[in-house]
Write a structure and sequence with these properties.
The C terminus is likely disordered. About 45% of the residues lie in helices and about 10% in strands. The chain is an alpha/beta fold.
Length: about 170
């Protein structure tokens, strides 16, 4: 049975970094060149998982972009926010959706996924499930039910090699 990364593990990966190092990771992910980058979509309620997910993805060769500290993002949600997110999604090479119980309830996550699907097609889109237990895929990716994305694209980052996560 495949094992999935847990929310506790993602928090632990981040906790191995100092607060300053975590801030550097967040700033780097929001200000790097988008050419060849991977857009990491996530619920704002999952901010505590973003640094850990970024560490995992970058240890597997990705250059992660997140919008949270992007200096061009407006401080408040406006039409400019949506336009800039569309542009960022289109500029990146890949799109990874960090799934959790919060993903389905987010106003932005399903919208971002739709933008990615419309502009990229399925091959460069993947799900990154985060669950309470390593074998509980149902509560993470499948419970989100994003139009049966898993069956359509098959790109589920179903597990991680825990040895490849460097502190």
């Amino acid at each position: 049975m495949p094992e999935f990364v847990t929310r506790a593990e993602l928090r632990s990966f981040a906790a191995q970094k100092t607060l300053t190092e975590q801030q550097v990771i967040r700033r780097s992910a929001s200000s790097r060149s988008l050419n060849g980058s991977t857009f990491l979509s996530h619920s704002s309620k999952d901010e505590d998982l973003v640094v850990g997910a970024t560490i995992v993805l970058e240890n597997h060769g990705a250059l992660v972009y997140t919008d949270e500290k992007d200096p061009e993002m407006p401080p408040y949600t406006t039409a400019k926010t949506a336009a800039l997110l569309k542009t960022r999604i289109k500029q990146t090479k890949r799109f990874v959706l960090l799934t959790s119980k919060n993903s389905k309830e987010s106003k932005w996550v399903p919208w971002e996924l739709g933008v990615a699907d419309g502009s990229k097609g399925m091959n460069p889109i993947a799900l990154f499930p985060s669950a309470d237990s390593p074998t509980d895929m149902a509560q993470s990716a499948r419970s989100c039910d994003f139009g049966q994305l898993e069956e359509r694209c098959g790109n589920v980052a179903c597990g991680i090699d825990r040895r490849s996560v460097r502190s």
